[in-house]
Amino acid sequence: MYRRCSALLALVAEAMALRTLASRKALVAAALGGARPLSAARGVATFALPDLTYDYGALEPAISGEIMQLHHQKHHAAYVANYNKALEQLDAAVAKGDASAVVQLQSVIKFNGGGHVNHSIFWKNLKPVSEGGGEPPHEKLGWAIDEDFGSFEALVKKVNAEGAALQGSGWVWLALDKEAKKLRVETTANQDPLVTKGINLVPLLGIDVWEHAYYLQYKNVRPDYLSNIWKVMNWKYAGEVYENATA
Amino acid sequence: MQGCRSRRCSKVVSYYGLITPPYKLDALEPYMSKRTVELHWGKHHQNYVDGLNKQLATSMFYGYTLEELIKEGYNNGNPLPEYNNAAQVWNHHFFWESMQPESGGSPEGGVLQQIEKDFGSFTNFREEFICSALSLLGSGWVWLVLKREERKLSVVCTRNAISPLALGDIPIMNLDLWEHAYYLDYKDDRRMYVTNFIDHLVSWHTVTLRMMRGEAFVNLGEPNIPVA
Q1: In chain B, what percentage of residues exceed pLDDT 90?
Q2: Cβ–Cβ < 8 Å for B94, B195
Q3: Pick from B131, B179, B191: CB nearest A212
Q4: Which chain B residues are Cβ-neighbours of A210 within 8 angstroms?
Q5: Is A32 a residue whose pLDDT tops 50?
Q6: GO MF annotations for this entry (chain B) (predicted)?
Q7: pLDDT tens track for A104-150
Q8: How many angstroms separate the CA atoms of A181 and A159, rounded?
């Protein structure tokens, strides 16, 4: 237990070292975007922090620029760095045939990999008002929402209720059940991706309800964060995902 | 347990109240800001108390002590609805009392001896405490507990609202690792928050008192009776 802890501390130290390299989002992308020579030589793919398609301050007043910058440059970047490191360690453990090390790495991989997957979707779920954020869904997705929830307002109410009731850290999702061909509202704990709730679930929209996603601005009032985030929701993206999945 | 059931008697109602921390709200600065303590105690902790009282109005747990509620409500890993609020009320109260202004450093006497016995050295304990806190994924708490079966001190992490009480151990000290506990002061830097807690805030006086009480339940060996 103690030895594993030191290894983890080294991992955190490296993640922090990588973080101090960056001060602006462009620099962050440059620092973490390229394949690292060492891993490329061993053949392990590395993941990169995706860029936002809007400025950090562009989602105000729904989400503050301070939160967006921290959330992207610190939290998401840390998930990416730790995920890459964990995959390297996994690669080494598999090569050595160290079965217990492989199993022991699973929770770190699920947490950091899930964090990377979830946040990558999250940035695409948001859009500045000036670029269409907040515009309600139309056509196929709009009709499906009316059919499965009664109305758009009913869906928003359900998502807000489940998001507010979630204990601890996690996500609330609008999901498409590909097999049942129905929309569902789901929650996942910590950084568990949506697929952990059902192999046929496709994430259309996810809302991060970890406290880091809203605390600086909304403090303990998570319901206010939830009711405001709809103003910058990118329904166009959700609609595209829905149409591709139901094509 | 429930008040008078007869419609002719007036129903006796009791409820849980929020206890004030044993220091002024700004006393933990600069390691924990007044703003954080005001919000954490005045809003988060208060909300848990209010939520618990609301649930207890119509619950079979009305009249239980908090400890009983936590142990029964945990329901062997399948917590009942009242568990979360009850445990968080208890955990946060325990947390405020685990801290003291201008404290930290290292313990003395019996507590130090026990730590050295169970961790090798105080430095080892400190490192393991910090390390455990950093390896907790998500929200939760890190504890120093006295383990009943093993009869030794141990550092454990629990997720969300899970309490060592429910797991049968004796809590000695805890640290809140939910993001609301440190985000305003430290943003994502959990390491700095934990380090400041163990170096400057943890109340070894309280730890000593809790250890003394814990020794009434766990046999830690023959006492060292000094020769006159």
Answers
A1: 81
A2: no
A3: B179
A4: 179
A5: no
A6: metal ion binding; superoxide dismutase activity
A7: 999 999 999 999 999 999 999 999 999 999 999 988 999 999 999 99
A8: 19
Distance from CA of A218 to the nearest CA of B (A): 11
**CA B96, B128, A92 angle in degrees (round to 5)?**
135
Q: At what angle do helices A222-229 and A152-165 cross, to 10 degrees?
A: 150
Collect all residues of chain B within an 8 Å Cβ-Cβ radius of residue A107: 137
**Bigger pLDDT: A7 or A30?**
A7
Between CA A103 and CA A117 the distance in angstroms is 21
Among B183, B184, B192, most A C-beta atoms within 10 A, so best to mutate, is: B183
Partner B contacted by A97 (CB < 8 A): no
Q: Is the Cβ pair B180, A220 closer than 8 Å?
A: yes
| Interface check A212 vs B, CB under 8 A | yes
In chain B, what residues touch A189 (CB-CB under 8 Å)? 138
Contact predicate B206/B173, CB 8 Å: yes
Q: Counting Cβ atoms within 10 Å, is residue B208 exposed (0-12), middle (13-18) or buried (19+)?
A: middle
Question: Beta partners for B143?
Answer: B156, B174
DSSP state of A73: I
The one-letter amino acid code at A218 reads Y
